[in-house]
Amino acid sequence: MILDNEFLTSSLEKSADNRLKDIVATIQKEQNDIIRALLDRALIIQGVAGSGKTTIALHRMAYLIYQNQRNKGREDYYMVIAPNKLFLNYISDILPDLGADDVLQTTFEDYALKITGIKEKLKVANDKISYLLGDAPIDEKRKTIMVSRFKGSLLFKAIIDNYFKQFLYKYIPDCDINIDGNIIFTSIELKKLFIENFVYLPLQKRKEQFISYLKNRLKKNKDLIADGIEKEYSEKIRFVKDNINDNEVRQSKVIELYDLRDKEIGDIPVKIDKAICDYSEKWT
Predict the structure, then answer these.
(1) Digit-coded pLDDT (tens) for 181-223
(2) Which of 270, 273, 244 is nearest to 256 (CA)?
(3) Residue 64 lies in a domain
(4) Quick check: helix, strand or coil at residue 51?
(5) CB 279: neighbour CB atoms within 10 A?
(6) What is the pTM assigned to this prediction?
(7) Where are the beta strands (DSSP E) in the chain?
(8) First and final CA of the chain: distance in angstroms?
(9) What is the phi/psi pair of residue 267, to 5°?
(10) Residue from 94, 89, 77, 107 nearest 24 by CA
(11) How far apart (Å, rounded) are the C-alpha atoms in residues 231 and 227?
């Protein structure tokens, strides 16, 4: 047997279900590699019907629970989303047999109702199948089939993608980020950055990460901002030196400009925070 994990082996010894023992005894090296794959990336398991996708996925979850004991018992940390309740019933005993008792096993519809608090009953795929196989008028059945085909088409996906892209353009404030009148990020740059980055996050988390990213990037570029201030005051100082003949007045004015320059450079972190804060407040 390729699978030599102590946790899984001991779990099997306690299990009274020979079916599960038979399944694990047939696990191949490639399947074992999937079970033990690192947690730092999304993993998609593909295979033909009956190839063991579900079994391997559940064993992987049990393995990860064993490897991350600090999260064991947190129902919200591990979850199995199955296509329907019949499928859930079929797999419901596998994780407990592997010692993983605290995993939420549900369907997408039930979980969506739970987190949204919606009390209404959703019309799920099984209901649609029952409807199509029932005594509904043929015209209504055809309409249902036509709608389902459209919602499953690439055209419908393109419409949704385009709608969301337009939504994002309206969601992002149409303004620049500037410090002392100097534009640091244009509105176009900001929109492009937001749309192309952190796309894997929900919208609110994406916004938070984006704001944090801008703040860190501005702080890393504070030397460039300081260079701009240096350049501005160098020109002012040169003008004073070239156009004021009185030595005492000229010296006093130059010292004043140096002090103002140093203060502005010292205030850069505060100005960065204010610029980001002002920008954040403009979000809808």
Answers:
(1) 778 889 988 988 888 887 888 888 888 889 888 888 888 778 8
(2) 244
(3) yes
(4) coil
(5) 19
(6) 0.47
(7) 79-82, 104-107, 177-179, 182-185
(8) 57
(9) -85, 0
(10) 94
(11) 6
